[in-house]
Amino acid sequence: MNFHILTLFPDMVMQGLSTSIIGRAKDRGLLSIEAVNIRDYTLERHKKVDDYPYGGGAGMLMQAQPVYDAWMSVVNRIGYKPRTVYLTPQGPTFTQPMAKNFALEKDLILLCGHYEGIDERVLEEIVTDYVSIGDYVLTGGELPAMVMVDAISRMVPGVLTNDESGSTESFEGNLLEYPQYSRPEEWHGKKVPEVLMSGHHANIEKWRREQSIYRTAKRRPDLLKKADLTNKEWNYVRQLRKQWKEEEEQTK
Ligand code: ADE
């Protein structure tokens, strides 16, 4: 998969995406990541890419022309108009299913805004998807673009090895991942749960599923509503909630 990041800070995104699993996947030819410097496309003498908003108001806006020409340079090179994401707090919040869906694309353009935003007219012409990474405001789209590249890349076949596989991780089936333990068997007086040392695979699976449900009910009750549980598991959730409510009342 090929990522094309349109940005005023190419070094920032390239440095952030060169290490660990993403760097290895690039070396293996599974991914390519390029940063296109929007400033290289300005026709303005002093390489300016921003100007005051018509109608007044705070801050500067990125102008349409350099953004459009930077985008067109990618389109001309790859020979088609790929999905183009504008990173903005005004989009729907990025989720794991969205990461999986974007991972099906051959090319993806990520447009990073700065200052107070980008001239609306160019957004209308080039953007196919508006995406936010959460309900807070950052100074630019670079960190959100890096977050998206990371999450999407790990969904590209071959990027994760079998050991790192994404199949039983948090958000699969709208449940959080169960707790995990490694050596030593006892640390700070805390022992690894007995069942994990038993070698009894069916019991281990049962314990992990129960832990996932417990965790999700406790930490992310909003997710649990969408989870696919058996009747018996829903009864367990009800029992947990009752118990937590009683405990809460006792501490009042
Ligand atoms: N740009 C500024 N803040 C952002 C956010 N929360 N998500 C995506 N892009 C942004």
Task: Give the topology.
Blueprint: E1 2-7, H1 10-16, H2 20-27, E2 32-37, E3 50-51, E4 61-62, H3 64-78, E5 83-87, H4 96-102, E6 107-112, H5 120-126, E7 129-131, H6 142-153, E8 186-187, E9 190-191, H7 194-197, H8 201-219, H9 221-224, H10 231-251
Parallel strand pairs: 1-2, 1-6, 5-6, 5-7
Antiparallel strand pairs: 3-4, 8-9
Tally of separate helices: 10
Average pLDDT figure: 95
Task: Note the run of SSEs as H and E.
Answer: EHHEEEHEHEHEHEEHHHH
Question: How many runs of DSSP E, i.e. beta strands?
Answer: 9
Q: Within the largest sheet, what's the order of strands?
A: 2-1-6-5-7
Based on secondary structure, the structural category is alpha/beta
Q: Distance between termini?
A: 55 Å
Strand residue percentage: 5-15%
Helix content: 40-55%
Instruction: Estimate the global geometry from the Cα principal axes.
Output: elongated
Estimated radius of gyration: 23 Å
Poorly predicted ranges: none
Largest sheet: 5 strands, parallel
- Cofactors and ligands: adenine
Oligomer: single chain
How would you explain this protein's 3D organization?
The N and C termini lie far apart (55 Å). Helix 3 runs parallel beside helix 5 (120-126), helix 4 crosses helix 6 (142-153) and helix 8 packs across helix 10 (231-251). Helices cover 41% and strands 13% of the residues. The mean pLDDT is 95. It has 10 helices and 9 strands. Strands 2-1-6-5-7 form a 5-stranded parallel sheet, sandwiched between helices. The protein has a two-stranded antiparallel ribbon with strand order 3-4. It is elongated. It is α/β, with parallel strands linked by helices. The chain has helices at 10-16, 20-27, 64-78, 96-102, 120-126, 142-153, 194-197, 201-219, 221-224, 231-251, and strands spanning 2-7, 32-37, 50-51, 61-62, 83-87, 107-112, 129-131, 186-187, 190-191. A hairpin with a 2-residue loop joins strand 8 and strand 9. The protein binds adenine. Residues 87-89, 132-134, 136-138, 141, 144 line the site of adenine.
